[in-house]
């Protein structure tokens, strides 16, 4: 039986200093994931608001839903192109781990292509038929719900891949994507953490978008609603996220969890800072949802960016902690100045 | 076998990559690059001639460009990468390391292109009058340039796989990127993209646009672009052919699977039809027959398929010329594997040593490690199916043929491994093909 099949690294050297690539992977991943968050939550928001509008027979919700679908279809295009960057970085830095974890769920990985093409086309139908299908709401909603369902599912494939690469010793006993969903730890905790972050980010997006717009234009009624409700959604979901974050923390191996709980100064500081900033953001969002002041939205935006940055950094350090023992035993073909001069 | 493997046993691993790649090339060349150039020209002409109908048509095209490129186009582009990672990890792994910074540049241009396309479409109605319209057209030109840039970068990578040039010795980025077929293949592809776009679009214009005067205007634009592109494709195509290695050149007809006269006749007819079509478009734009537009569209897509299959096939037995074979094995490891054994160095092989009991299983691992990238046991493509190709062969036939097959079949990489591994491979193949072992020694012992 294979204990952990880690191949020797590709003989061609990694094309840049690993430190630089690590900075790039954190930044490019954050850029990508924020647009993924927007896409998922704005699609869900559009479907939710449209349904609510049908039940309440109130056109206002329908208008809000239409705006959300419009934004979602733009962000999905940006999310996809931004994704190429982090995929490039992870492929180059973690070749020995990421390629194996990808191939182990190879068919599910390739299904992402078909799933996303279908979801994106459905999103376009959903957006471009909004007025034409006002009296065919069932059909219209079908396209929205279909796109949403696919967008809710696809992150699981990505999560299985990036979690499985952390557990080479469990590769030999894994058997395809669906088995892997329950084979590796962390998966569902990560999924919960990610989905909540998406929804909160979507709410926050509308709050910020219309706070900016308000500086130049007078907002219409639907827009004011989106802004305030966005802040409200951002607030409540983030409160729940504080719990989900701890569930994730407790799904880590004890020795790695302890790094975040006092054993490692950097990681512990990052965790504490992220919680503090999250509490500040919650307070700002709560205020914004209670009264339409929005004065402190720049502060909220800055806090949000800080949280995002810390989360991305911690996420990277987590991977490094998990892979540390393997990286030592299976050295990478590192960049050398000799390569640099060529 | 540095990585686990995947088996699309009926469709074939190679076919998965080919299918995704061909769809992507049709969209990236025909829609993203070619159609954008035509569309911006149409908008410009509409502005100059104050033709509102032409402007509205250009906008409609922009909408479809947006929809198609941001769904099928973008996802199949990522898809080539996804599928090669899953099926040819060693090859894509090497290419990413060689061309890392080119890919970073490609990524930035790619983001720019998508953002510009979104801006271009969504500002169409807002930027309609006077100077705003001029600004919109400029935006379109920048967009067309960005979409061309994505091709200018990725072509460096694609061309290097066939002609890595000095890179094989120096391992230096620029030697790989500016390689012997870079410029001719870039030139060929960019004008091919325009012709493909004309072929795709003109069918839909002929079919959907009922206003004859408007159709005439559109075909006028297409005719102009066609008159430049067709001779350019011809000349650059010859230059491209002239710059590929002789061994590769000799495999062109073979790689299409057609007899030489059929190959020449079909391609000749298709080229002639395209010339007739373009002349018709220029001389009699009001009376372009729809059936001809349909034939041209079909044959253009077929040509793209043929071009991609040929380009991928004539590299054989290599995937990166003179460096890595089509099955991902490095040329430099051949001696090592022959002496020490292939399985010993195959991290993911389930059997690393051959014993009396595991011969067939070990043979399967050799098959997975060296054959499965291109071959199937009994898939739908009969040329790739070993049940078909080795029908009736005994193990002894296999063990005497395989070590020298690369001399007879120039597309085949050499077998790498010890005699025991060769025998194990034959034992596995015989079990799959004949349903039993067919080694005389083995059979007589039983």
TrEMBL record, chain A:
The keyword Methyltransferase does not apply. The keyword Cell membrane applies. It is a multi-pass membrane protein. GO terms for biological process: aerobic electron transport chain. InterPro entries: Cyt-d_ubiquinol_oxidase_su_1 (IPR002585). It is found in: Cell membrane. The chain crosses the membrane at residues 23-55, 76-97, 103-126, 138-160, 191-212, 233-253, 265-285, 297-314. Keywords: Cell membrane, Electron transport, Heme, Iron, Membrane, Metal-binding, Transmembrane, Transmembrane helix, Transport. GO terms for cellular component: cytochrome complex; plasma membrane. GO terms for molecular function: electron transfer activity; metal ion binding. Its main location: membrane. Pfam families: Cyt_bd_oxida_I. Belongs to the cytochrome ubiquinol oxidase subunit 1 family. This is Cytochrome c class I. The lineage of its organism: Bacteria, Bacillati, Bacillota, Bacilli, Bacillales.
TrEMBL record, chain B:
Residues 358-433 form the Cytochrome c domain. Keywords: Heme, Iron, Membrane, Metal-binding, Transmembrane, Transmembrane helix. The chain crosses the membrane at residues 16-40, 61-82, 94-120, 141-162, 182-206, 218-242, 262-280, 287-305. The keyword Protease does not apply. GO terms for molecular function: electron transfer activity; heme binding; metal ion binding. Pfam families: Cytochrome_CBB3 (PF13442). The keyword Heme applies. This is Cytochrome c domain-containing protein. It comes from Lysinibacillus alkalisoli.
